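FAQ: What does the model actually see?

It sees only this:
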Amino acid sequence: MRSPAAWWNDPWRPPRVLLGVTLAYLVWSLTPVLIAVIFSFNDGKSRTVWQGFSTRWYFGDPVKSVWHDAALHTALLQTLKLGVIATAITVPLGVMFAIGIDRWRGRLPSGANMLMLVSFVLPEVLLAVALLFVVTTLPLPVGLGTGAQVLGLVTYQIAYPAVLVRTRLATIGAQYEEAATDLGASPLVALRRVTLPMLFPAIFASAILVFADVIDDFVLVRYLSGSSSTEPVSVKIYNTARAAPTPALNALATLLLFAALLAITVGYLIYRRMTRGDNTAAGGIAAFAGEA
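And it is asked to produce this:
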């Protein structure tokens, strides 16, 4: 094993400045998260003064712990409900959007592709304000609450599965579907039995990404929540932190953090296993960037 001095003097190691910036960024980003997780196990009510290790705020306190507080239960259930519903709607729509852009030619698909790319740089607060105006002004069957939140999340998240699936389409090409049609399959049968199974890794990765992003969203769900019963965890933490917060909020945020990390890790491992040996990450992204 090389000594630190030998590694430092190695001309082939990463540049010192870039390494320093990377480490500083990681420390700056992870330190507040680690502090919040640590104080979720604090025995006292303080979120800044350590008073001993305890699981009081997870299930020990008979009133204010995550396990016993009905308001925290409502926020957690609302978060999971939004994640499941928004993912179930966003991913199929994104898949159809990606296939349509990839298969069609002309100005309409090109414009839709540009609109999809613009959504990545569109400020989320601008979309939230616009949707709030639409929902409260126009005579729509959807009012503030879960319906409006799902509508906003689907609108904001649909670009992610569209990009991932289109990347996969650019990687596998159209030759398999053309071979299926040459053997007598109709376009719909070829799509269902050939293309969609090959798109499954990207579809699965899209679902994990959308779900993890939805349960962490704040701006859209904050603007479009109608009452306290439709406030997810992120909004509940924000509202309670302005009053008299307890480490129970840290505990709730910690549980949500580990749920998101678990979903992303499992999705990444399954995606890597499904795409082993086909070089999807490099070829697909490069092909997509070239076409876009």
